[in-house]
Amino acid sequence: MDSIKAIINGREINAEPGMTILQAAKANGIHIPTLCDHPAVSPFGACRMCLVEAEKNPKLLPACTTPITAGMVVNTNTPKVIEARKAVLELILVRHPLDCFSCPSNGKCELQDVAYELGVTGSRFADAGDTNTSHVYEDANPFYVRDLNKCILCGRCVRVCEEQAQYHAIDFQGRGIKTSIQPPVGSPIEESDCVFCGQCVQVCPVGALSEKTSLGMGRPWDIEKVKTICSYCGVGCELEINVNKKTGKIANVTSNYESRTSLNKGRSCVKGRFAWQFVNSEDRLTTPLIRDGDTFRKASWDEALSLVAENLSSIKEKDGGDALGFFSSARCTNEENYLMQRLAREVMGTNNVDHCAHL
Amino acid sequence: MTNDLESINSADTILIIGSNTTENHPVIGSMIKEQKRKGKCTLIVCDPRKIEMAKYADVYLRHKSGSDVALLNGLMHVIIRDELYAKDFVEKNVNNFEKLKETVAKYTPEYVSDLTGVSPELIEDAARAYAKGPNSAIFYTMGITQHVTGTNNVRTVANLSLLCGMLGRPGTGVNPLRGQNNVQGACDMGALPDVIPGYQKVLLPATQQKVKDVWGADLPTTQGLSVVEMMEAAGEGKIKGMYIMGENSMVTEPDSEHVRHALEKLDFLVVQDIFLTETAEFAHVVLPAASWGEKDGTFTNTCRAVQRVRKAVSAPGEARADWEILLAVGKRLGAPWGDMNSPETIFKAIADITPSYSGITFGRLEGGPLSWPCPTCDHPGTPILYTTGFPRGKADFSPCEWQAPHEWPDEEYPFIATTGRLLYHYHSGSMTRRSSTGEFIKEMFIEVNPADALALGCEEGGMIKVTSRRGNVSGAIKVTDRVPAGMIFLPFHFSESAANRLTSSQVDPVSKTPGYKVSAVRIEKA
After folding, report:
1. Cα A359 to Cα A355: distance, rounded to the nearest angstrom
2. Considering CB atoms only, which of B5, B305, B432 is closest to A271?
3. What is the least distance, in Å, from the CA of A158 to any CA of chain B?
4. B454 shares contact with chain A (CB less than 8 Å)
5. What ipTM did this prediction achieve?
6. Which of A52, A354, B186, B280 makes an SS bond possible with A330, Cβ 3.0 to 4.6 Å?
7. Whole-prediction pTM value?
8. B positions 127-166 inside 8 Å of A (CB)
């Protein structure tokens, strides 16, 4: 289909038919602030942060859910638009604590970014009677914490659970100021359909959901992302290891819904996202060990490798290569498996090499 | 997998057999659920356990453990009887149709119902839904392969797919979901007794000549042993030295007591791992390895996509990447491996001898995954196999008769025990039990049907002891109708109550896979 022409902020732009105003703006390098919009989920129109003015429309329109049409004339930053956005933001801030300095999302909080962009420092309506900010800090499971006092009801978590995880473990509950995101009435999240894939945590724009094991592991500006593949099942999900550049340690693991190389397209499961702490375990082996009676003693690489080479050669010499067996590993890389079978076949002269494919 | 993940979005019918997809391959599980929840496919689930996927199924077949061949033959019986099969496809592409027809003739829905416990009507429904397509995909996992008839189970899955011409198009395929990050790659790399990289048979003269040309070495010409056979040989004193890398045999192999005996008998055992595992405790030398996140290289996923893994952090202390250690060991033993000194140069050596990988380079992988076969540097990879027919010309139907499993309940051992993985854990648990997942599910539990629990007089959480001909384990009872009466389920992640003390080391004669899914046991209050 032919692209359509429209005007945004006085500039003629081209858009694909079916695009929303927000998508068309983004594709043409025009910024519109958003909170509930996210590439992982379908448009929702909850937060009203993306309101824009379109000629011949008496009301402001949410850019994220309004399709762009041919000849449309849109303005994204008129005084009327800015005023409306500020008011929307101040209403959100009625129930959002301003304790940013201790919040795990400080530095990646999208609410903070929008407030900064609009120059809003607090809410005119902060003294309103009922603020619904007395939720308990929920940290009963080892994966993530829920701090619903920070929730802005953007619904990203509800939609990602429904559309990506395909569970619908949580939804909006209550009405008006009493609204909150909850599993079915009467059960805690740990007993709900939630399988702790953590996709809700990743898309939360504020600090309402945060990874428990990552608390204190690194501020967003200390993080470097390294793209890799998950170490668990064979699906081959692309993940990002977030490394704290100051400590050189893993801070957390995330995925990227916009990656063009990701077979999982950003989806994850509980193991991929949350089961990485073994890397930092105190039980890790850190030196070669050599048997000493019933125990082990630490040894140098030189001594350990010599002992390995001597014993493998002497068994081969005495009893032949087929008196040796080599177990390779489905957890190791292709390169390592390749070397292991060459070690067995080429160097030690046996085809006794296999791995845990069947186990 | 013959097909890629994208293919799920084109499937009109999805048949899942022996795969607890949402727990073992959660992301693929979510993709299949999405296709189903959007109303875009008919879902058939065959599993003795009422797994989560069964909740979404249009047709749920709860067949007895070990009756897979009978069930699938029953589907094919209906499909041939009602002439629902792909006649043109079969004629053009598959040999041996008459033999298949003859074999499945006796597998009437009524007969199969007797063998499997599934009603004849459901067998008819499933057969029609699968044959209808137009694009039907089969997904299976260890519920098919971990039987002493595993090879026949897989052949029968393939027969069904060939019969209906469900190959070579998006939305079709025979799709085994592989359980470990790089199990596909380890097979591709020839970490198997009978093949070198690229599945080139060790004993073929052409392979031996190629190895002489490329590695400058002579291939050994004796038949190699599989993991389970090597453990047997060690127990008999025929294997005297072992090198175990990244494998916790004490927990993951069948018949743990036998494994203990075998490891104790070795003259020399070197274990290379990230932890001092239950297996490493038996070693003479333990070599500390770098883990995931601490090294570069490639993994190959379940749909044959080769992908780059990257080093993000340094290994602790003096731990080294497995490739570094293996290079060092090889060089000390005189290997002429001067051309290999990094994952990238090792990968180049892989591409030199592996036809299906020869077009793949680290440089190309920066642009994203490449699925093998990828024979040349301008080849885009092959996300879907057999789009233009079969490389050997015609495929063969391999008709199989159903055979009873190696063990079956009797008076002394009246229950079937089956083992498997949980969403929150992985294999021997050495990684997941040291992570946040380990805090969530801390210990062993055993799924028992409410009727059996009642007969035993045991309530939720009470301790029971499970005994087989090999050994026993204890655990807290979880009363659930996920398992049918007469069957129990045990996760195998917990070394202190290792489910593999129960399992038999009897293997499938071809694949050498143990029959983990069926052990005859008795249960009692502990």
Report:
1. 9
2. B432
3. 15
4. no
5. 0.95
6. B186
7. 0.95
8. 145-146
pLDDT for A1: 63
Q: What is the CATH number of the domain that holds B370?
A: 3.40.50.740
Contact assignment for B233 to A274 by CB distance below 8 Å: no
B308 and A CB contact within 8 Å: yes
User: In this structure, what token pair is assigned to residue A118?
Assistant: 């609009």
Domain CATH number, residue B451:
2.40.40.20
Closest partner CB to A341 (pick from B196, B346, B434): B196
- For residue range B9-50, what is the model confidence (pLDDT) as tens digits? 999 999 999 999 999 999 999 999 999 999 999 999 999 999
Determine, yes or no, domain membership for B475.
yes
Most A CBs within 10 Å: which of B21, B24, B30, as the mutation test of the A interface? B30
| Residue B334 domain-assigned (yes or no) | yes
Summarize pLDDT for A242-256 with one digit per residue, the tens: 999 999 999 999 999
Residues on chain B touching A212 (C-beta within 8 angstroms)? 436
DSSP string, A191-239: GSS-----HHHHH-SSSSEEEGGGTTS--GGGEEEEEEE-SSSTT--EE
CA torsion sign for A110, A112, A118, A124 is positive
Q: What's the CA gap between A291 and B202, in Å, rounded?
A: 36
Distance, in Å, from the CA atom of B15 to the CA atom of B46, rounded to the nearest integer, reads: 8
Same domain as B106, residue B22: yes
Judge: A324–B323 Cβ closer than 8 Å, yes or no.
no
Asked whether residue B265 falls in the same domain as residue B125, the answer is no
- Give pLDDT tens digits for B57-93: 999 999 999 999 999 999 999 999 999 999 999 999 9
Whether residues B206 and B315 fall in one domain: yes
| pLDDT lower than 70: segments of chain B | none
**Is B336 found in the same domain as B261?**
no
Q: How confident is the model at residue A126 (pLDDT cuts 50, 70, 90)?
A: confident
B317 and B237 in one domain? no
**Interface contact B146-A358, CB threshold 8 A:** yes
Range of the domain at B83: 5-177
**Position B196, amino acid:** I
Question: Do B38 and B156 belong together in one domain?
Answer: yes
Do B51 and B13 lie in a common domain?
A: yes
Contact B471, B502 (CB under 8 A): yes
Whether B162 and B183 map to the same domain: the answer is no
Q: Using one digit for the tens of pLDDT, what is the confidence trace for B241-295?
A: 999 999 998 888 888 888 999 999 999 999 999 999 999 999 999 999 999 999 9
